[in-house]
Amino acid sequence: MNFLTKIKNWLEKEINTDWIIVALDLNRALIDLQEEYQQANQRIADLERIVAIYKEKENSK
Asked: How far is CA 2 from the centre of its chain?
């Protein structure tokens, strides 16, 4: 393998590695956002249950 081929292969590996790192970072960010979204939805559901309980208590008086 000549010197230019070695450099070309090294650069391709570096570029591919950079894209892999970017993809992994984006994937982690997406997972984090999905977890936050799930927590927000759970909080909304919990608050809706609490409101329903208070409404039921008000109606039973």
From this structure: 44
Q: Six-digit token pair at 21? A: 């790192």
> Residue 1: which pLDDT band, with cuts at 50, 70 and 90?
low
Two tokens at 48?
Answer: 């809706």
What is the reported pTM? Answer: 0.61
What is the Cα–Cα distance from 2 to 20, expressed in whole angstroms? 27
Helix and strand numbers, DSSP H then E, in the chain? 1, 0
Calpha distance 40→21 (Å, rounded): 29
Residue 30 exposure: Cα atoms within 13 Å on the Cβ side? 6
List, for residues 44-53, the tens digit of each pLDDT value: 999 999 999 9
d(CA 13, CA 15): 5
